[in-house]
From TrEMBL:
It catalyses: UMP + diphosphate = 5-phospho-alpha-D-ribose 1-diphosphate + uracil. GO terms for molecular function: GTP binding; magnesium ion binding; uracil phosphoribosyltransferase activity. This is Uracil phosphoribosyltransferase. InterPro entries: PRTase-like (IPR029057), PRTase_dom (IPR000836), Upp_B (IPR034332), UPRT (IPR005765), UPRTase/APRTase (IPR050054). Allosterically activated by GTP. Uracil binds at residues 194, 199-201.
């Protein structure tokens, strides 16, 4: 069964407060989302394997640690996931970046795919799927299904804010995928927005309505 990890690091929680605030403008919103994404990337990669290496410091030769060659990939769910990409690749510059385009049908509220571009070697990489919001879970579940069809075998989902409905959907459809979030909010409203949430992440990132 999928596990849900709520990241309660003080810096994440502090910055999330300003991300939620409706008085935060687009420029600051983008900067905060990137900063929180970087902090979350730090936590999500905590279990990466290490190998021993040798390095010569200005003083002496010593044994130390390096990543054990595990390949990583980051997949943004368009368009709001774009706001989290830079935070991840600044911390993990060798990660390959993919994009999945999904929009929510206004009638059915189900996701419709319109774009998919992924690293060719997804089967060899640990793929981290990112999107600020996990609301109904439809888009996240569809993106994970698409990645599995393309050969991905090792997946994680990282979101800023999740609703119980979205968590339940991902747990049902993808029990092998762990979910990392900065907050688990109480519920969705009648328009499938997370309450209290942060509004429409895409609109707030890009200044659209």
């Amino acid at each position: 069964m999928a596990k849900v990890f709520i990241m309660d690091h003080p810096l994440i929680q502090h910055k999330l407060t300003f991300i939620r605030s409706k008085s935060t403008g687009a420029k600051e919103f983008r900067e905060l989302v990137e900063e929180v994404a970087m902090l979350m990337a730090y936590e999500v990669t905590r279990d990466l394997p290490l190998a021993e290496a040798e390095v010569e410091t200005p003083i002496a030769v010593t044994k130390t640690k390096v990543l054990a060659g595990k390949k990583l990939g980051v997949v943004a769910i368009l368009r709001a996931g774009l706001g989290m990409i830079n935070g991840f690749v600044k911390l993990i510059p060798a990660a390959k970046v993919g994009h999945v385009g999904l929009y929510r049908d206004p009638e059915t509220l189900e996701p419709v795919e319109y774009y998919c571009k992924l690293p060719q070697d997804v089967a060899e990489r640990e793929m981290i799927v990112i999107d600020p919001m996990l609301a109904t879970g439809g888009s996240a579940s569809a993106a994970l299904t698409l990645l599995k069809k393309k050969g991905a075998r090792n997946l994680k989902l990282v979101v800023l804010i999740a609703a119980p409905e979205g968590v339940a959907r991902v747990e049902k459809d993808h029990p092998d995928v762990n979910i990392f979030t900065a907050a688990l909010d109480p519920r969705l409203n009648e328009h499938a927005y997370i309450v209290p949430g942060l509004g429409d992440a895409g609109d707030r990132l890009f200044g659209t309505k």
